[in-house]
Protein: LacI family DNA-binding transcriptional regulator
Organism: Streptomyces hazeniae
Amino acid sequence: MPQPVTMSDVARAAGVSVTTVSYVLSGKRPVAPHTRRAVEKAVADLGFTLNTVARNLRTGRSTIVALVVPDLANPFYAQLARGLQESLRGPGYHLVVGSSLAQRDEERAFLEEAVEQRMAGVVITPFRIGPDDLGPLADAGIPVVVSADVRFGDVDHVAPDSAAAFRDALAHVTAAGRRRVGMIAGPRDVTGGDPRLDVLRAEAGRFGLTLADPYVVPGEHTREAGAAAFEALMGLPKPPDAVFCVNDVTAVGALEKAEELGVDVPGDVALTGHDDIEFASLVRPRLSTVRYPAIEVGRSCARLLLSRLDGRSAARTVRVATTWVPRASA
Amino acid sequence: MPQPVTMSDVARAAGVSVTTVSYVLSGKRPVAPHTRRAVEKAVADLGFTLNTVARNLRTGRSTIVALVVPDLANPFYAQLARGLQESLRGPGYHLVVGSSLAQRDEERAFLEEAVEQRMAGVVITPFRIGPDDLGPLADAGIPVVVSADVRFGDVDHVAPDSAAAFRDALAHVTAAGRRRVGMIAGPRDVTGGDPRLDVLRAEAGRFGLTLADPYVVPGEHTREAGAAAFEALMGLPKPPDAVFCVNDVTAVGALEKAEELGVDVPGDVALTGHDDIEFASLVRPRLSTVRYPAIEVGRSCARLLLSRLDGRSAARTVRVATTWVPRASA
């Protein structure tokens, strides 16, 4: 299927920047006559049709899409941003990224800015806000996509489908005779709870295993929290022999702590991450993990957002498949 | 020295969000009377004085500061963003981050958006734009800080002071008898050239060493480019026995390629990075590197920007000290 003609194509054919193309289309700024003619010729030659961006330019709406994530230092979000940005570029949108530090005030502040700046759209991985906080965006006609395990009412939604990958991972560790499963989980006070824990617990049940306190240690999604949680698990009278982590960043923290404590991974404990960030294969032992393809997640968010921006209907929930990636740590 | 009272302090004392404080101060949105009184009391109690943010709120200027970096997937920039964001929060600014993918069109588009959105300020690590591209921001009265080795005319500037750290690194590798120095450098077509290469070359000269083609391999600042450059260096008739990398991300790519090629690091080649991103100590062998403290770089950018926003004078170039961090790879 041929790709639709984009402003980038027009810019390339006319030998000008995308911004110049947008000025010609919007009439918002003066453009030199010969440049304008080059753009108009490219538009005609390529059969480019005005899309939502061009309309928005004329109506004064920004071409900025905001991505709000809890932690820019987590490479998962950097890759998600890349997938999103690449998909938005063709249609003429620019992506800006804000880090909420997983704090409710910051999350709300970004949403308020999006309304005040009349941004084109918002993609958010929410931590402490609730569905009600998205109301002002709906009122302002700004489409929102939530990228998170948890659902936000009927807001467009991209989430991992982790059950099958967790099942593969559990089959792997139980085949090695491991029976005491623990989890380094997310925070307890997050809106919607911790669906990733719920899915893992349900899958563990199929293997006749329970996953309960004190074998579930909550914490932030950081390396430091992962290290602290791992230490707590190893301090139990009967420490777990298989630990699942809510993401790779916490798993890396756990690996470092294991080395410090002299705990052998995977000899004493099998350790599994979630995401497959690029560094998962660079640490030692190489991290076994559940691959949740961040770039594809970003692209899925873009598809949902663009379909709203273009007034097209589309599936409103996308489940992105995950895969169990066995390496050395489990 | 006591810290100045910030909007965050007022918000904490009044038990409300920073956003609510800003609404009270700006009068931009209605606030419930009892909330307004609580904020006004906190303002009086703490001796808070209206600063530029409050003035900007009333004049309609955004509280958004944009950070434009070449690659969000490089953890150095995520940390820089964190340092910047933390310093800007107190005074009431929000940070958004854009990834230019090191492309001139994208860099220009972000700058144009900053002007159109009347953003409060811009911090940029420029790759392909030149000083002239910053003209529209100056015209619009939007302060800019450049975070890069290269200077952009008289624009406020934060840069590493790498000479002493390179000298320490060179002393280390030459003491081990190494004499053939190579560099995995940045791109050749970047505005202002490659000052990091120039500094390393000058320091190598002090040790009677030359650093010249074909021992200098240019490329993008990516893991893939690092791997390709390392392979090119190892293909030389007399490969280098000490390789310096323009950043840690390229060094990690080089390490992976070394493992693939069966080249022993540091046995055959000593390998040195630049930045000390958090993963430098997680790869194996652990990466020796020049530590350029990203959070401190971000804070320095914030200080320069805030002094412009407050109309205060300040040093306009900040050199951030670097340190040689020997680990296992060199």
